[in-house]
Amino acid sequence: YNHTDVASICGGESFVFGKQTLTTAGEYEETFTSVHGCDSTVMLTLTAFPVYDVFETVTVYEDDLPYQFGTQSLTVEGEFIGNFYSVTGCDSIVTLSLIVKPEDNIPPDIVCNPIEVSLNSSGQYVLVEADISTILEGTTDNDSEFDELLIEVTPSSFSCEHAGLEIPVLVTVTDIRGNENICSTTVKVKDQTLPRISCKNINVILDENGLASLSKNELYTSAFDACGIANVTVSRQQFSCSYLGTNNVIVRATDNNNNSRTCTSVVTVTDNLSPVFEPVADQIAEADAGECFAKIDYPEIIVYDNCNVEELFLIEGLGPDAEFPIGTSRERWVATDGSGNSDTLSFEVIVSANYTEPSLNTISDIIVSEGTETVSVQISGIFDGSLCENLPLEFDLVFTNKSLVETFSVNYFPGESTAELLLVLTENSIGESLITLILKNTQTNEEFSTEFSLVVSAVNHPPFLVEAPENMEMKAGDTLIVLLSSEKGVIFDDTDENDSLYFSLAMEDGSEMPEWMRFMNDSLVAHPSISDTGCYKLLLIATDLKGGEAYCPLTLCVSIPSRIQYMSDFEIKVYPNPTSGIVYIDFSKYTGQRAEISVADILGKEILRKVYSSEERIEVDLSDRATGIYFLKVLFNRQEINHKLIIKRNP
């Protein structure tokens, strides 16, 4: 079994728990053998209660005897010992010292003193122990301590109705033997609690007279005092322009006992009314003849404001002392008061003027050749009729021969003294026309005109290509003769009657023609050698009797005859490849023999041709050539080999 048990002892006693003798409180464990011979474990919680030894002093009067002390009835003073059981059942020893006094019939010696008290925030006051001690200061008793006396004060509480008065009170003092004495005094009741008042801030706006007023109630939210508010006063209720901005107004609350408290209300005074101008009509004037300006009787600018106008100034226009130009001018005034409110006044000054007729300089006669598409005519000295302002102008042309001009336009900016007249001529037209230029002021309808002539004369037309000959091919060593007819309509033609053509032939790149190629009597004669293989760009030029020219590009390609062998074992070395410019050709196996070397660009244009007496290594300088792909051709001992070269410049 497992069992739990509890037990208690008094201080100084012992408790036997199995084989253990216990004298202190705690938890203990013991093993017991049951009647069946089995072990059982018992857990014991032991509590030790204390035993008390008490000394006590008691004072009694003779008429209170006998005094009962336990089972003893005592009639004289002295020390006595008794045994008592405590609530835990343990014995306690009490030693009593008994003092016996004679009987007391003397009342307290009472002294009453006046006092002052102050009502609390609720308008009440109740006498406290300290107040009673002050009232009875000096009071004694032959047998009782002061704090053993029974004291009664009537009345002991006060309210607002007693404020400011000395209230009579009756004080009764009784000692512990019941002896009583009475006295009277006064309690002066004061109200020293300040009233409570809460202000609020407010904004006011001045009226059209620059004034604003507030009632008292608008300056505070509440005022309270337990004994009542007698009045509320404020330092200011009326406001004018001089109080614009924030103002501290003192609000004072006074209670019925003349206690007062203040708070501050911030009154913000604003002026939202803008100044007001007296209206001004538009001013109309006329400039003197030939004048661009006029003086006017400038109107008086009058403005009103409920406070003061701080600024009055002109923000647009010329002002009272100015001369006004012809046309319409705007005058704009602004007035601003001390609060930043503003108003504007606007009126126009209209000055009229007299205008003269427009004019321009004489235009010279114009002679152009047939085929001219556009003629630009500069017009100068343009005057619109006014020295004071830019007036709108309109240009028009009248022709005696309308067939010469298809359209016309004038590029002119108002106020400028020059313009450009553009005449777009009719295609293939020739002849003469008298042109009248009319200049009109569209505002005044005044006009001015001037005349000039336009002559379009016939011109020579250059020849043009009709049909290009086919490109030409031949073998090196052969002779080629090609007739290139200069008869009109075959290769080239010319629209001019009685005109004839003659031909010439040149290299397309402007270089001299090779010696093996000739052009005579409208025929190309060519007799190239092996070293002349490749394609040649030619330019056939047709020229008429007046020097007009037309061009036709031709190509002549010279190839190697079939008897020339191409040998794959023609062993030479070309390096470096790619190169930055210098190329070496290694002829180490064929020294002492003649070699022809040429280089062409990617378009087939030959850029180098040279004959060398082959040494072990030939240097070819291409440093002046741009980065790109080139073709190297070597003719050697009637054998040909081609190499692709790459020139690559360092960045």
TrEMBL record:
One Gene Ontology molecular-function label: calcium ion binding
Keywords tagged on the record: Repeat
Translocase keyword on record: no
Domain of life: Bacteria
A Pfam family assignment: Por_Secre_tail
Any one cellular-component term (Gene Ontology): membrane
Domain (HYR): residue spans on this chain: 270-353
Gene3D superfamilies given in the database record: Immunoglobulins
UniProt cross-references to PANTHER family, sorted A to Z: FI04643P-RELATED, HYALIN
Protein name per Swiss-Prot or TrEMBL: T9SS type A sorting domain-containing protein
